Amino acid sequence: SFSMRFSVNLASKSVSKMTRFGICGNNGSQGHIASPVGRGQLPALPLRWPGFFGKTARNHRRIGVKHIHIIGIGTGNPEHVTIQAIKAMNAADVIFLPLKGAAKDELADVRREICQRYINRPGIRISEFEVPQRQTAERSYAQSVDAWHGEIADIYGELITGLPENASGAFLVWGDPSLYDSTIRIIERVRQQADRDFDYSVVPGITSIQALAASHKIPVNLVGKPIEITTGRRLAREGLQAPTTVVMLDGEQAFAKIDDPDAEIFWGAYLGTEDEIVRSGRLGDVAAEILTLRSAARQRHGWIMDIYLLRKGRDFEE
For a pLDDT cut of 90, what percent of the chain falls above it? Predict the structure, then answer.
């Protein structure tokens, strides 16, 4: 059977890989080092191929053009922040930090703590800006979101215009920028404006789905079964369809209206933080408790971020 071991020299930052074919390191050497097990005299390949460890925050950029880093920072635990995210933060000249009113000061505080903990390059500036509230009166959901994004795009445009030539800025995005977050589409909206010349890159982050599954110690999917990721609004309208349904952005607690008491629910709020709350069980047994916990937590903090997974069936059931 094939076996492999790694050894790391922290002082020299070198890595050696030992296989039954021999030993190779990350110094690019093509020379063969004899295997200690005495088998196989094939030339060992270098462990570190060009670009093996991925893109850096710097090599995304076009020379002479402003650059924006869109950085996923996880669900509120500063330890969710990846090495790639830290490098991107330190590659920026300005960190743009959104403010969403006094009731959500804790969200800004988490971003400030992340900056304080991980920014180590002198001269990086923190620029705070107010995020407008979405107006819903006499508008459909789509109309209100579109208008809201337009307002935010105007603010982003001003922030980017204020950057010096060839400078870079960064937006720190809760969770992952690709999942139920609009920073990417708003940045694209800004780029469509005629006088905006900049490029951007995206750094993935730990999502609330991952944090929820980790806290409950469950896989997200059943074996061989699909999953659905949806919103509380759609769950209330369409009901529980998939074997596994992940529900986000549920201000209406749609799970309490699901007519399937034997479904399982795995719920979590403030995931990854000191205030994390999780509950799980048969939906008919725990729905009322979750409603009570959620209401009390929202009143205590002034805001809540929660997510849940609903499940029907078991692994290997046809």
Answer: 72
